[in-house]
Every structure is written in structure tokens, then in C-alpha cells.
Amino acid sequence: MQNVTAVKRTVVPFVSPVMAVHARLVAWDLSVVKKHAVEQGLYPVSEIDRVEAEYKKWLALAIATDEGIPISMEIDPLWHDHIIFTEDYTRMGLEVAGRYIHHRPAVLDDEKALRRGYAQLTLSLYRENFGEPDPKYWGHVVCKCDGRCGHVSSELTTAFPSPEHIERVST
Questions:
Q1: What pLDDT, on a 0 to 100 scale, did the predictor assign at position 72?
Q2: Spatial separation of the C-alpha atoms in residues 143 and 159, rounded to whole Å
Q3: Hey, how many other C-beta atoms are within 10 angstroms of the C-beta on 11?
Q4: Secondary structure (DSSP) of 78-128
Q5: pTM score, whole prediction
Q6: Are 162 and 108 in contact (CB under 8 A)?
Q7: Are 142 and 80 spatial neighbours (Cβ–Cβ below 8 Å)?
Q8: Span 19-54, pLDDT tens digits
């Protein structure tokens, strides 16, 4: 008779790259940046925590997918404010992303041409990882990051904006 020993297996849940990056960003302290943003009149104190949460979701998408995806106009001022805190912004990029997260506006025509479709990409990735975006904060998707920045506008709808709409509003 064979001796059969039961093997206990530990199941480790899968954590997507976006959610792993997001967890590190959630732990990142932006209290000084938020205080500055409120003092500069960028956001009311009653909304700054929600804006921070949406900013960190977008950063997680941009970092984990390594895409130059647009950020919404409603969240973009917090990103710009964070960038001027150069030491913290640089350290966060290096520690969370392993690199500096660039922001460079599209100037050349070929750079501007890349922007079409990026609003759809942001919203698609957001929905895939975080559920339906709040139209208060994602009503306009305007700015791509990571060295491929351009200005794209789209209205947030329950369906993805059509390419024709993106074409029309971004010219």
C-alpha cells in the first residue's frame, strides 16, 4: 500500500500590473502637493482627495501600460502641480515606475497626429481596471504624457467617443 501525503497548495491571487503600480501610488504621500494645489486655487479642499485618487489611477495606467495616454483636463492641473515639486515627482517616478515620467507637449505635426485615438485608449484602460470613470473628473481627456504629450479633447459618454468626434474636437 502506498503512503499518500496530502499537499497543501497556496493560491496566490493574480494582481495586474496596473493594480500593483496603483497600490504603490496610493501609498505615495502627496499631502504637500495637495496643500499647494488648494492654496493656488486649483481645487477646493472638498475635492482634492478625490482628484488625488483619480490622478493616481491615471498615473498607474500610464506607468503600467507604458503608453502616452491622455489625462483629463480636470486632473491635469494636479499633475502639473506635482511636476513642480521636482524632488518628489522625480523620486516617485524612479521608485514607482523605475524611470522619470516625462511630460512634453506635442509641437510637431507628426506628434500631433499621434493623439487621435488616445482618449479612447485612456477610457478603455480606465474601465478595464477601475470601472466606469466619473464624468466629473473624466469629462475631457486632453493631455498625453511620457514624452508624447498632445492635446486631445473628448466628451465622456457611456460609450467610447467616436474617432470622428475626437477628430472634430482636436483639430
A1: 84
A2: 20
A3: 5
A4: HHHHHHHSHHHHHHHIIIIISS-----B--SHHHHHTTTTHHHHHHHHHHH
A5: 0.73
A6: no
A7: no
A8: 999 999 999 999 999 999 999 999 999 999 999 999
